[in-house]
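The following record pairs a protein chain with its ligand, pyridoxal-5'-phosphate.
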Amino acid sequence: MKTPFVTKEKIQEITKTIPTPFNIYDEKGIRENAKAVHAAFSWNKGFKEYFAVKANPNPFILKILQEEGCGVDCASYVELALSNELGFKGDDIMFSSNDTPAEEFRYADELGVIVNLDDFTHIDFFEKSVGHFPKKMSCRYNPGGVYELSNGIMDNPGDSKYGMTKEQIFEAYQVFRDKGVEEFGIHSFLVSNTVTNDYYPTLARDLFKLIVELKEKTGIALSFVNLSGGVGIAYRPDQTPNDIAKIGEGVKKAYEEVLVPAGMDNVSIFTEMGRFMMGPYGGLVTTAIHEKHIYKEYIGVDACAVDLMRPAVYGSYHHVTVLGKENAPADHVYDVTGSLCENCDKFAVDRQLPKIEMGDVLFIHDTGAHGYSMGYNYNGKLKSAEVLLQQDGGFKMIRRPETIKDYLSTLDEFGIVDGLLK
Ligand SMILES: *Cc1c(COP(=O)(O)O)cnc(C)c1O
């Protein structure tokens, strides 16, 4: 059973001033989890978690993670500018972009952040765009083939657009060295949303072996290994959540067995988790406004894919709790839908739930990462508010809902919709 981090009574209090739909985040959960991540890797002196901004770019959330010692992983101009404005500086920012425009490389260089190059040809492109190299550079690695853990094939890096081949990455570090770069790192992101404690340890061992080989062949000793994202969460109630302490232990074991004997006991471990840092600490709160009985039973809610796209895009499972009916028998089968003119706009399909009355409030779980941030404005639907459930039990709005003026703001200079912009 999955329990919302917020009670029905609290939601009733919040909806007196902030109408549904909205995403709500759990400050206490975010902080406790961030502390657990840091404890799990405390054995590594240089450890740093670079929170993937794309997962949840709300500035109040980024500030909480900053207070907990996190840096940020950015992939665009806006993410860099936002992070810089919030006081993330230099080594607090990892720029792990791909297909990167020249002006973004220039901006990243201006800010002095760590640049993680996605491709061998970007070495030339970077040099032409920026004019020089920073003292520190990172490269993204793609081993190709399929990626297998003890519990089977996880994904197919050979099909993914990211990273460099082994030959390219070995060459890249030598080119960098010749061009005066002094410090190097490696980055690799091979599988998304892994619900196994084996992913990071396996990836770490592979990368450690690779950098030992690099050192033996070229004399280049890397100073950091970035395990990137991919640590998953238990979206389904029958899944066992990852144990970050065990994951940290597993990486430590690989470190001690591969890097330490090779005399590389000074390598810092970086991570770029998004989902694991925020996923469980967000929920979409929405009210049932329609019930429809045709060939199936439908419940229409006041949220739609604009507020949470994952089910529409990936068919992802998000658990649904009908607030106040946690213990009622789940003896009805519903599709829970939003209002977009797209049949994929369904938060749940053939879901067993308690009988839903109009006005019931639904809590859609695990929307803290890749939730609000993926939203768009299809059908002219405006994005909803974000709310923070504070540590002391209070709450505050941390982003207001969009208005029609926001939606039309890029038409302000054309005089065609001025009546709506007043
Ligand atoms: C999306 C992304 C992440 C975060 O991934 P999660 O699955 O949310 O952990 C980290 N690094 C890079 C480069 C990414 O693109």
